[in-house]
Known about the structure:
This protein is an alpha/beta fold. It folds into two domains: about 1-70, no CATH class; about 80-180, 2-Layer Sandwich (Zincin-like). About 40% of the residues lie in helices and about 20% in strands. The chain has six helices and seven strands, in the order ββββαααβββααα. A four-stranded mixed β-sheet has the order 1-2-4-3, covered by helices on one side. Strands 5-7-6 form a three-stranded mixed β-sheet, covered by helices on one side. The chain is elongated, with a radius of gyration of 22 Å.
Amino acid sequence: MIKMLSLPDGTSFSYEIVRKNVKNLNLHIENSGRVWISAGKKHSEGEIEKFVISKVDWIKKHLDRIQNAKPQLCYFSQEELVEKIHHFCMELSPYYREKGIQFPKIKFRKMTSQWGNCRPKQGILTFNRKLCYVPEDCVRYVVCHEWTHFLVPNHSEEFYRELSKICPQWKERRKELKEVKIL
Length: 183
């Protein structure tokens, strides 16, 4: 069920009520700008509307951010991204093999809050598919960063000393990545 909410400042937006087997009201905003509320059968439409009104400032802020987001520049296709990451991993492999690290299993998936992930005990590196939206130097930095976690599983001074050996410009690359919003 789609509802329209008109605000005193003249703005309005629509939201959808999705009935689910949930205890609490939950607000969702998708990157497309779709606003929806998951609500249990016990929640009345009036109760849901009060909930939405209580979240208006948060909703407006997020809808503005989505509307004003700059189009993301795609540097390469998903296939090219996979090739580049495999290439960088092959380049790094001899250095880490000397330190007793076997070539890891490499995975790719959509991530919302990180560019990569290392699971040292399982020997798995996972990379965000959205790395195709960052320059090649930043992709290489992420690969170096994740490989370094095989040696140092935290972000201590030792980790950054080790990372500096294979990626001396890591501070610049990290700064560039912080400017990119993962949508």
